[in-house]
């Protein structure tokens, strides 16, 4: 495990750090995506957009900005509508998502800690966790919960922030953004791809596909059949 600083330990501190105006959250998100993750919105749409089973959990959904884009992308691609539960630990983020999707009966939202979710075992066909594994202080317990709430054979899609790669000026810029994120409490820690892969496997998942793109580890993993 790296000795690099990790963020606040308590979920309450993280939830408080995520209390910000929705417009600032979205603008800030764009800069973090571009310069820390070294990723783009189209890349995220292509990765997460196809991965919605008949009953889907969008974990750490935030205000639902990205979820809304996933759903628009799916409509554009003529992919089927599905039942979606969005979950997040920050009440302020969740309130934004509830407001955004009001009047849409196939979407519901629950306040949930990723490490102790209020869902039944085997309830979901798919789980997406976008831009958030590296925000979780209890990542191992959270990964075990993602496995638990999936049906056998169900699949997880996640992108995980890695310690910055590449060269000047992008690497020091990404490092500076990450240090700021950790101080602010919106980032717990970036990972080495080998470390987060090991944790995902130790939680009980089978890796289906994986790749490193920019400063992100994108992974598809499956809950094994008994
Ligand atoms: C960087 S945001 C990503 C939001 C959204 N998925 C997106 O990509 O726009 C990280 C989210 O993780 C949530 N989060 C942090 N710790 C959590 C936990 N223990 N359980 C559930 N959600 C958590 C935060 O509240 C925040 O909404």
Automatic annotation (TrEMBL):
Any one GO BP annotation for this protein: methylation
Coiled-coil segments on the chain, per record: none
SUPFAM superfamilies (UniProt xref): S-adenosyl-L-methionine-dependent methyltransferases (SSF53335)
Pfam hit, one: Methyltransf_25
Gene3D superfamilies referenced in this protein's UniProt entry, alphabetically: Vaccinia Virus protein VP39
Annotated InterPro entries: Methyltransf_25, SAM-dependent_MTases_sf
Methyltransferase domain sequence ranges: 57-154
A GO molecular-function descriptor: S-adenosylmethionine-dependent methyltransferase activity
UniProt entry keywords in alphabetical sequence: Methyltransferase, Transferase, Ubiquinone
Protein name: Ubiquinone/menaquinone biosynthesis C-methylase UbiE
The organism of origin for this protein: Rubrivivax gelatinosus (Rhodocyclus gelatinosus)
Taxonomic lineage: Bacteria, Pseudomonadati, Pseudomonadota, Betaproteobacteria, Burkholderiales
